[in-house]
Amino acid sequence: MDDQAKSDCHPMKEELRIHHSEPHVLSTWHTVDADDRMLGLQIDRRVLREK
Asked: Which superkingdom heads the taxonomic lineage of this protein's source (predicted)?
């Protein structure tokens, strides 16, 4: 159920999950673009809740 919600939220959820263990990589992805940054912050919240 959570996986389905994530795939609806963002198609790159698998890649982000892999990079989740590397904060510096995730941070770099966040700063790629303003829109991506907002989207990244939303995903970050989901990932943190997952832990």
From this structure: Eukaryota
